[in-house]
Design goal:
The protein has seven helices and three strands, in the order αααβααββαα. The protein has 256 residues and is mainly α. Helix 1 runs antiparallel to helix 2.
Length: 256
Amino acid sequence: MPDSRRLPCDMGRYGNSGPCAAAPAPAALPLPAAAAVDGPPSPGGSPAVQPPPGAFGRIVPLLPCRRSPVGAGGFGKMARMARLTAAREAEISTRLLKHWHETVPNDRMAHLVKDAARGFLRSLQLRLATQGVSLGHWSFLRILWEQDGLTQRALSQEAGVMGSTTLIALRAMESLGYIRREQMAGNRKNMYVFLTPSGRALKQKLVPLAEEVNSLALRGLDAAAIATTRRSLLVMLDNLARDNLLAHAQAGDRAP
């Protein structure tokens, strides 16, 4: 019977990740040799820039999001899952590096931002799993650490997900003892979500993991480069937000 305690798959452009993969991953592609000069390769196919040693930080062992029952073969199953996941993630990372350093170094900015975001999430997911917390639960915990006592509807809006997705996650988080849901006296319509002491205590364990991923991603960039990157991304965000607002306004004008 399939194990329902697996991490969610990443159905991205580079294949499935996590223990959901159906078979052991093939051997990872070798990284390209280091270029003689710094900077990205030219579109003509010059040698790719090899990341410096330790560019990916420390290796974090992956454990299932929930504790598996320890019985006959329990530890062996967990070890096989960890090896399979690590091999698959290594293959995905190698493909991604080959794509950006050699195959299509000048691919569209949208793809670069998307792949960078996926890299952040994969690294964070590995670290959260060592504490038995899923990436989906992290999203809601972050919001509740700042705004405890939100309604389920408000929590869905803050997280940017559907109400049904929020409900499923909250039921799981409640069973794990992270949150409690209550209705207020005189208001039987709304369900409010509160952190338990256990859920609140997770902040001290999980936030440093997220900070570690951010520091890892910014390794090799000085303060000026980081500031320029932040300004550039904010300009992109502003441009796209204005485009979305304009499209919404135009759709309203066309409405009967």
